[in-house]
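ingest -> validate -> predict -> emit
validate: passed (alphabet ok, no gaps, 418 aa)
predict: started
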Amino acid sequence: MMERILEKRNFHLIFSLFLALLVLLIYSNTFYASFHFDDTMHIVENYLIRDLSNFFEILRAQRGVTMLTFALNYALGGLNVVGYHVVNITIHIVNGILVYLLLYYTIRRFEGVEQWWARKIAAFTALLFAVHPVQTQAVTYIVQRMESLSSMFYLLGLLFFIKAVDAGTRTRRGLLYGGVVLAYMLGFYSKEIAVTLPAIVFLYDLCFVNRGNIKGMGQRLPLYGALTLLLIYFVVSTVVPAGGFGDLSKEAQALSYRDPSAGFGVKSIASLEYLFTQFNVLLYYIVLLLVPVNQNLDYDFPISRGLFETPVVKEGTVLNIPILPPVVSLVILLVIIGVGVYLFARGRREGSLRKLMVSFFIFWFFIILSPTSSFIPIIDVIFEHRVYLASVGFFAIFVLCMDAGFGCLAQRKESRTP
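emit:
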């Protein structure tokens, strides 16, 4: 029955409509959710966005692309929250469809893979991404349109690259490479988390286009050159002056804080303490994706003062797991990364789709979280919206592993049948 549905000619459209309706149903009670926290400084009290004649001034802001969408929302409905939520939910629906296409086109790159199986893996991954409770903050917290919009351009950039590789003409390939560069720019100026896109494009090229052969990537040097120049420019012109990859723009910091919210100027936490804390935060993100309970908009996450020291959890703090010394989390994370390296080597040698995909998405998870989970301090050590795009890696691996597990059970059942 499932195979018959998956093999339908118009399955892409059917699935997209189903995903959209499911997301609308899940978030149907959020359309009147009020402004909270940073919504005030970015939207409610931001008089710049109240006049579209400030178009270029808005666009020149640190996260100008997202701020421009807020200005458009204000022009259409003022401070009526419904319009803002409609846009946020629409972006999330689009991202779910883009995740589906990313998985589908990736799997179809391998010869001998049946179309229905590619659609199944892609569809279940996209559905998990779209409906998982951990996405609530990125969708319903209006100002975190920054995260979801940047993620949308990130996914579009990667999809443009995939289509460019298979383009039949030089002109079409050039236009699609231009799309990658444009998506990178729009993503970064939506939120700086898009800065890692060149690394993901390179990794995708290595894993799925050249199957581990780095020599074959030379023909795309102009694209990598353009992305590298943009990366350098973004870091020098925006990230360094702003102090890092914080969740507040430079303008918002000036309005609300005497001290920076991100960067080495943060006084409340040292670089090493932040790094040690992030070992526990990264593991906590994984646990939260696996068991999404005790979610929180504003965590009181314990700060780790030493690598081998158990952090102090304040009374009343509710977390999913006991917080252990950072060295324990570090060992677990290194094992996961080691598995990624091992699977890449095996997948390259064997031409194994499943091994290469699991390897790629392990690195995807860590690379996308690297701007906010590094040694550059940010006042808020953890936010659920930060795992929004990185979660695609977790869901893809989960679906692939579950599919493999059910496949093994089915084979054993068949072998026992007389």
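Residues 249-259 have pLDDT under 50 and may be disordered.
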